[in-house]
Amino acid sequence: MHPALRDLGAVGVSSFLAAIAAMLVISIVGKAFGAALLGEYLLIRRMAAWLQAGVQLPAGVALPRYVSASLNDPNSPKEAYFVSALLTACGIGLLSCVVLLFWRHPISKLVFGSSELDHLVLPLSVLLMGLAIHGVVFGYLQGNLQMGRASALQICNLAVLPVLAAMLLRSRHSIPLIVNTIGILMIVFAGLFALPILHKGNFWFSPSQLKKHGSELLSYGFSRVSGDFGLQALLSLPAVIAAHYFPINSVSFLLLAGSFLTVVSAATLPLGIILLSRVSRSIALTGVDQLKYRVSYFVSALIELSVFICLQMILFADVIVRFWVGPTFLEGIKIIQIAILAVPFYFVYAGLRGVIDAAAIKAYNTRNIYIAGAGFLICIVLVRVLVPQSLLLGGFAAAGVVGMVILAWATIWTVKKLFAIRLDWPRLIPGIIVGLMFGGLSFWIHGVLQYQPGPTILAVYEILVTAAYLLVLGLINPPWIQFFRSTMLNYSSPTKGEATD
């Protein structure tokens, strides 16, 4: 088995557990607190996801990229990069907290839709600080290809701690208390995972050295942070804009729909994490040309798999929502299903962004997000002018889908340009048809038979359908399946000096 596949498995498990934990916390809050308080929790989460791009500026993409690119250097400055990133991230995090708390009333009005929600600003600040320190430690482990420890950190901070906090504190009926607890514990556990790094390394670096590496990280990350802000805007602004026109319990439908995209993000996160480090290292060793065919197969796989995943999520969204947060949220199921249409396009972008960041210093992802953001804002204006009030919430959801369509198209175009690959669209048609066929089967079972399975039966059904889908794909044997079998599963260790990526 290829080392990248083992790393993918480790990060995949941790990302899966983090996604399940996020769903469990939403379920606990939604069932125990109701739609209004669930809306508050989801707003804090969405704003934290939006603003964490700033506090993780030196660590999110820059730190793992520079650490992995210097692994073969006998005098690797990776520890200096770690210390520089830690100091910078903490500084940015503290500054962000001061700004948020000092202007909490206007900020609450702007991002939460009401100044009466200013009590959510403090927990948002604490959570951002936790994400800043977590991001630095995780980014260093990721760049150092220590994916076992990175996955353990992710399980602790993004899976175990949120669920424990929600379960143990739900009787207090306080969203700020739950979020504050999660943020503080994230800082503690990230510090514990950083201790072995600090213990093994020599961290007597001169201020000039720290300044040099910090400047590199900031320069690389700064051109991407606006792109991360833009991406989170595509995910968050439909709900933020809706908060100025609808009560929080109605906005919670859009926020809940965004959680489906979060699940997709968790599914593709392992790909982005592994590919950023390994593609950076492989380019440093062999150049871009050696990766041309691998990337083309990867793009084909993302497109074909996204069709199957999207259809299954849309068709059983009502079953998932009923079990997840209760039947009271089913009145907004159409809004949720509209938003889920963005899943295949977000799937493509999230899977390929790490490849693009590794292949070029220029921030192509940021440019693509700007293009998509412009399309999204145009759609928002058209929706506000042309769509009646009764359909306005669905119009905001549809505008988010259009933004993701544009982003996926721009991402594929960029990958084709960077790696000089050519997608053979006719060869993708059989795989797409297979996904549509299984979507049609689920539609017939769910619609014609009025089948409403419980969560266990639905999980078993989806496992069987996914297995059958993969079996049929194996029979038609598209090129990316052939590549996966021959390269990833029949792997022999390279001789010394050869690239392993």
How would you characterize the overall build of this protein?
The chain is mainly alpha-helical. The protein has one domain. The radius of gyration is 22 Å and the shape is globular.
Task: Give keywords.
501 residues, mainly alpha, 19 helices, globular, single chain, 81% helix, disordered C terminus
Order of helices and strands: HHHHHHHHHHHHHHHHHHH
Give the termini separation. 12 Å
Number of structural domains: 1
H/I helix tally:
19
Largest sheet: none
Radius of gyration: 22 Å
Helix content: over 70%
Portion in strands:
under 5%
Low-confidence stretches: 489-501
Task: Assign an overall shape.
Answer: globular
Task: Characterize this entry briefly.
By secondary structure, the chain is an all-alpha fold. Helices cover 81% and strands 0% of the residues.
How do the helices and strands line up, and which of them pair or pack?
Elements: H1 3-33, H2 35-55, H3 62-69, H4 78-102, H5 104-112, H6 121-143, H7 147-169, H8 175-200, H9 207-242, H10 248-286, H11 292-315, H12 317-325, H13 333-340, H14 343-359, H15 364-386, H16 392-419, H17 425-448, H18 455-476, H19 479-488
